[in-house]
Amino acid sequence: MKPQVYMLNKLAALSVILAIPYATGADTKTEAPITQTLNNQPSVAVSVTDFGVKGDGIADDTDSIEKALQAAATKNGHLYFPRGEYLISRGIYLQSNMTVTGAQGAILKKIPAATQKFTKPISAGDTVVYVEDASAYKVNQDCYMWDGAGSGFNGTVGKIVAIDPGENKITFEAYKSQGAKLTYAVTDKSVFSTSFSMLTTNSTRTAVDNLVIEGMTFDCQRQKNEPDAYPLAAIHIDPQRRDKDQRNIVVRNNIILNSASDGISVQASENVTIENNQVYRCGVNGIHVGFTIAKVTVRNNVVEDCGSAVYWCYGVTEMVVTNNFFKNCSIGCGGIKNDGSNSVIAFNTFNGIGTGINVINGAHQTIITGNMFLNGKGTDINVYVSSFTVISDNLFCDGKDIGISLRGASRTSVTNNQFYNYTGESCIRLWRQAGRSQLISKLNRISGNMIVGGKVASLYMEDSSQITVSENQIFPAKGGKAIQVAESCSAILMKDNIVEGEVINASTP
Fold first, then answer.
1. pLDDT higher for 241 or 20?
2. What's the pTM value of the predicted model, to 2 decimals?
3. Cβ count within 10 A of residue 423
4. Which residue, among 286, 238, 235, 219, has the nearest Cα to 18 in the 3D structure?
5. Nearest Cα to 277, choosing from 256, 254, 307, 261?
6. Residue 57 falls inside a structural domain
7. What is the DSSP code string of 29-89?
8. Using CA atoms, how far apart are residues 225 and 189, in angstroms rounded to an integer?
9. Residue 144 maps to a domain
10. What confidence tier does 43 reach under pLDDT thresholds 50, 70, 90?
11. Does residue 141 sit within a domain?
């Protein structure tokens, strides 16, 4: 990404944040970029301005953008947004073999969602709801019926097809991709909302391959009480059909602001790249990937003030997360959640994060190296019931809880890390998963670390077995112990550790 492009996109984002009129209308003089077709012949991208788009931040451009998208799909698959502020009232549904690009200052802006509680009970499969004021809704708007049970799915994605203002009754049609899946009882948190994903593929179960989204700014205009379920991400690439793979998804150089849900949610089969994006103030995850993805790269992104920075699940393998900057994300995992295998998490910065990296539930063969953890609010690295993890050459500064936690972890190597001014309980802790006596921490190696801090103990071991502790330099916090070994430990080998200038060698049977 060229530096000037980055700066101009950043200025576009700041114009949204500060309400500065960055663009007063679509720049119709901006020429659409020229792309190469599969036979290497030059092809001009389809510009949305050729289909009646205003781009003034006032008019609803949804219909015109959809016309431009269909024209691009039949031509070369490249849809182009010149500089402008494009207001949309429902999701824009993408297709295979499509590239969506924006010029500097191309802002896609969502009309604020109407969100109201139900006034009458509903049942699973219902397509009629009653709300407080139906006049706040419009026919053809996307909608989401949410049971209020928590973030995730817990609802139905669809489209409003009829409104009866007199009875405050709304009839909607559930999209085939999701179906009517409301299964929980209505609570005082249950709502009917016009919240939607801005660029998405979730209107049908058709798999989408070869998709690129780049250079756009998304302002989701998050509203109070708006649902936070993952189908409502600003960019949402829906799960593929189970009988057909979905692959080759690229999301890069975008700015995403104020989503009530995720910033970017990609759920596919393989070959996903999420890079050089800036994601701010999203209610759930900055970046979410999942559903049996292989070969995923998440790099050079900035994620700030979101619930979690990067969340991946459901067997994601061969994932590389590198050179990202994460700040002030502390809901749930906070940083990175991994329950897949064969992953590398390297050279990222975590500042003010809840749990920095969460390797859990049988995740295997994860390498965590070269990361920086600053002002951690919770555990910086948590390895939970997982094995064959390598944690090396990371820097931990000013943490408030635990630096590295191995809980029910096995065959894990913790080497050459540095802890500075750690005021939390311990810098490194080994322990057992509560209530599961067979899941002790065992066959782990703690070696070559420089540890300064730990108000209880710099290295704290309990319910651990067959642990090698060697060649560490340890300087506990005032009143804390250097190494604390509980009676529940066995076969602990300590060799050539330096504690405040004194060499310590000790073993337990």
1. 241
2. 0.87
3. 13
4. 219
5. 254
6. no
7. TSPPPEEE-TTS-EEEPEEGGGGT---EEEEE-HHHHHHHHHHHHHHTSEEEE-SEEEEES
8. 9
9. yes
10. low
11. yes
Q: What is the DSSP string of 267-328?
A: E-SEEEEEES-EEES-SSEEEEEESS-EEEEEES-EEESSSEEEEE-SS-EEEEEES-EEES
User: How many structural domains are present in the chain?
Assistant: 1
Q: Which helix (H) or strand (E) holds 11?
A: helix 3-17
Torsion of CA 259, 263, 265, 266, to 10 degrees: 150
The maximal CA–CA distance of the chain, rounded, in angstroms, is 82
109 in any annotated domain = no
The CA-based angle 165-168-171, given to 5 degrees, is: 90
5, HSE (Cβ side, Cα atoms, 13 Å): 16
Whether 502 has a pLDDT exceeding 80, the answer reads no
CATH of the domain at 152: 2.40.30
Tokens, residue 167: 């009875």
Contact 235/251 with Cβ under 8 angstroms? yes
The parent domain of residue 171 ranges over 115-193
Enclosing H/E stretch for 235: strand 235-237
Q: Which of 87-96, 242-251, 449-458 has the lowest mean pLDDT?
A: 242-251
From CA 41, how far away is CA 297, in angstroms rounded? 30
| Span 230-253, pLDDT tens digits | 788 999 987 655 555 778 999 999
| Two tokens, residue 461 | 């071991």
Phi first, then psi, for residue 260 (nearest 5°) are: -70, -20
> Torsions phi, psi of 8, nearest 5?
-70, -40
Tokens of 316: 């994601």
Overall average pLDDT of the 220-227 stretch: 88
Task: Extract the tokens encoding 99.
Answer: 């590239």
349 contacts 356 by C-beta, under 8 angstroms: no
At residue 96's C-alpha, the angle toward residues 139 and 243, to 5°, is: 95
